[in-house]
Amino acid sequence: MIPRYSRPEMVKNWSPETRFRIWFEIEAHACDAQAMLGVIPKENAAAVWRAKDVEFDVARIDEIEAVTKHDVIAFLTHLAEIIGNDEARFVHQGMTSSDVLDTTLNIQLVRAADLLLAGMDRVLAALKARAFEHKDTVRIGRSHGIHAEPTTMGLTFARFYAEMKRGRERLENARKEVATGAISGAVGTFANIDPAVEEHVCKMLGLAPEPISTQVIPRDRHAMFFATLGVIASSIENIAIEIRHMQRTEVLEAEEFFSPGQKGSSAMPHKRNPVLTENLTGLARLVRMAVVPALENVALWHERDISHSSVERMIGPDATITLDFALHRLAGVVEKLVIYPENMLKNLNKFKGLVMSQRVLLALTQAGVSREDAYRLVQRNAMKVWEKGADFRTELLADPEVTAALTPAEIEEKFDLGYHTKHVDTIFARVFG
Hints:
By secondary structure, this protein is mainly alpha-helical. The chain has helices at about 10-15, 15-35, 40-50, 60-70, 70-85, 95-135, 155-180, 195-205, 220-245, 275-290, 290-295, 305-335, 340-350, 355-365, 370-390, 390-395, 400-405, 410-415, 425-430; strands spanning about 140-145, 145-150, 180, 210, 255, 340. The protein has a two-stranded antiparallel sheet with strand order 1-2. It is elongated and about 100 Å long. The model has no long low-confidence stretch (mean pLDDT about 95).
């Protein structure tokens, strides 16, 4: 990913330096296990750890790979240059490249998940704080983009909180599912390496041994991981879209924080655009772009091919770096979001009580009017509001068929906003406990 949409913590996780450091740790722990089993001399295993604090020369490894055309062999050759050829004689004993590559990828995905979970925690904290801040801030709810019935801004934030919390739970499960390692040798039979080596390496690196690997770790685990990232990205876009709609000039119920000195347009000085949430919509598309290739990686030839390899070298860093950046950008937007309660009330009242139509409809049916007739009466008066800018309450009070069933006091009571917010506390208790 380009630096513009990257945070250094996640970028570091995917750097060549980090990758080679993990490769080294896998090989060194495997040597320890082999020495404990008596397969290799203990002094050779100990010699490997002499490279523990060495900075591996990425350029040198690339130089060797240019000749060998094999990245793991290039690394092992460089390691031998550091610790000595004789000392390195038993490194990679009974192992295959995928033991190193797949175990490393899963370690990086686990570490990426930890960073993403931290980002989600920041988003959740921001959403919760704004939800309680605006628990009783009334705004109009919309369906199909059209005024529906009153809700509150707090419920909007609570809804997003619940969605992101589900996403966090999914990511925790995806992290657990991908936290496996395999040191099982060619075609995964352990023919040339004891299963105890795998158990030791995984224990030292915080992984669970893969129950059965076929030289590669099964890619359904990774498909679930990237699919989870895609769902979280869609939830980010869901929030971003709502903010973008609220910032529309005709709505202006909320807007992104506009900092001093910020400029919205090169041509129109008056502009204050929702650039951050528009950016989040775009970034969500990039994260979801990784999902289909990850699903297609599940089907490999026989015990192994490398059709998945090139895909994962790209989607691993790109999807996690992008989502990490997007989570923190979203958290910042929510934390600083400027909210306009006065405009919310103004919008709610724009059609002069029209949004209370269902209450009147229900009251008429409870007063003995058939539902068909009640709907006809309410809609007849509602259309005058749509088409002529009339006042809904006034029209109802002037309609003899309506007043034949409801008293003026009963009609007036149907315009109480508190009716629509009476269960907000119940919903908040469900969401936040």
